[in-house]
């Protein structure tokens, strides 16, 4: 199975610098343009199915991809963004000033460290890779697209790059509507590319 891991387009929360987590917000006009640019970049692929987080910003991106690529969509709860607990809904700069320890926990490669009332890296990694294993059963020879979130994708790449406790997760960051590619065969997951964003140069 080939997997195209996509971060959703720019959302209203992204535009405002808000730590969104499980909170919802719609795509901005720029987010829609990014989604169409991504669809054009992937137009040569034969996509068996698109799986998306239930968040509106992810579903909005998935809908654009589906309309352009002729694919069906399914929602999977396991593709949600990391739960950021008490920091959800706070501007990122303010969170860094007011809650430096909680904010640092979001960037840390410590698999058990939790931002207050939120999820650990281990929790997020477990549900993401559980989803991938399930999809591989049904799509062994297919290409599928997964639309998820920035921090969730950072955690997936962190896991595949060695899951070092000393890592700053920002080094695995994805721009809105950038993507990564992985191949899955049986229990083997190969990371082919990550953070591809050349299609967004003029957006």
| CATH topology assignment | Rossmann fold
Distance between the termini: 30 Å
The tally of helices reads 7
With strands numbered from the N-terminus, the spatial order across the biggest sheet is 3-2-4-1-5-6
Radius of gyration (Å)? 16 Å
Per CATH, the class reads Alpha Beta
The number of domains: 1
List low-confidence stretches: none
Secondary-structure element order, N to C: EHHEHEHHHEHEE
Instruction: Work out the helicity level.
Output: 25-40%
Residue fraction in strands: 15-25%
CATH architecture: 3-Layer(aba) Sandwich
Major sheet: 6 strands, mixed
Query: How does the overall form come out from the CA principal axes?
Result: globular
Description:
- Helix content is 37%, strand content 17%.
- By secondary structure, the protein is of the alpha/beta class.
- It has one domain: Rossmann fold, CATH 3.40.50.1240.
- Strand 5 and strand 6 form a beta hairpin.
- Helix 4 packs across helix 5 and helix 6 (121-138) crosses helix 7 (150-160).
- It is globular.
- The two termini are 30 Å apart.
Topology of this structure?
Layout (H helix, E strand, L loop, with lengths): L1 E6 L4 H4 L13 H13 L7 E4 L3 H14 L3 E3 L16 H7 L1 H8 L13 H18 L4 E6 L1 H11 L18 E7 L2 E9 L7
Helix pairs in contact: 2-3, 4-5, 6-7
Question: What attributes does this structure have?
Answer:
single chain; alpha/beta; Rossmann fold; 6-stranded mixed sheet; 7 helices; 37% helix; PGM_Phosphatase; Phosphoglycerate mutase
In short:
The protein has 7 helices and 6 strands.
